[in-house]
Design brief:
Structural class: alpha+beta
Number of strands: 12
Shape: elongated
Helix content: 10-25%
Mean pLDDT: 79
Number of helices: 4
Radius of gyration: 18 Å
CATH architecture of the largest domain: Sandwich
CATH topology of the largest domain: Immunoglobulin-like
Distance between the termini: 43 Å
Order of helices and strands: EEHEHHEEEEEEEHEE
Strand content: 35-45%
Length: 171
């Protein structure tokens, strides 16, 4: 399915004074309305093909990350496992995992000082979510319904160099 990602950064509109806008839209917004919206904010991210809204947590993490211009999306966890020359299992204390649940979104934070190239939240059914660098480790934001579905059924995975480490959460 064809998708178009447009990122417009208006340097003459300071970030603190003008909004950052992410919009999932259909073809009817590609004309004058699209240009008007893009010109009235500091940053405008247009995702043509609003069906991508079903993958909202992925786009939310990109948008929330403040690293839009240097985006380096994670490979899939499966491809990282296949490419890894060394796989290690480890544990992480539940004390190093915090969950902040809001009205619609849940943020999961893994307090970790190790610098990893890629990190994932991995669920027992094979579902995975990219994590991003946070203030004290790695974070991911999920819809509340997704978090509730996988509560107690997830672990972390991290890649650095040719080593992939999986972390089971322990009490």
């Amino acid at each position: 399915m064809l998708s178009i990602l447009t990122d417009v950064l208006n340097l003459d509109k300071p970030a603190g004074e003008f909004l950052r806008v992410m919009m999932f839209h259909g073809s009817h917004y590609m004309g004058a309305i699209y240009s008007y919206i893009a010109e009235t904010c500091h940053e405008f991210i247009g995702i043509h093909n609003y069906e991508n809204a079903a993958d909202f947590p992925y786009y939310y993490n990109i948008f929330n990350d403040e690293k839009m211009l240097s985006l380096d999306p994670n490979p899939t966890l499966e491809s990282a496992m296949q490419a890894a020359q060394k796989q290690v299992s480890n544990a992480v204390s539940s004390a190093d995992v915090t969950v902040e649940q809001g009205e619609a979104l849940t943020k999961i934070k893994w307090k970790c000082q190790m610098p990893y190239t890629y990190t994932w939240l991995s669920c027992t059914d094979g579902t995975e979510f990219d994590m991003y660098d946070g203030a004290e480790g790695y974070e991911v934001t999920l819809l509340n319904e997704v978090y509730e579905k996988y509560t107690g059924q997830f672990s972390f995975a991290a890649q650095e160099g040719d080593t992939l480490t999986t972390f089971q959460i322990t009490d």
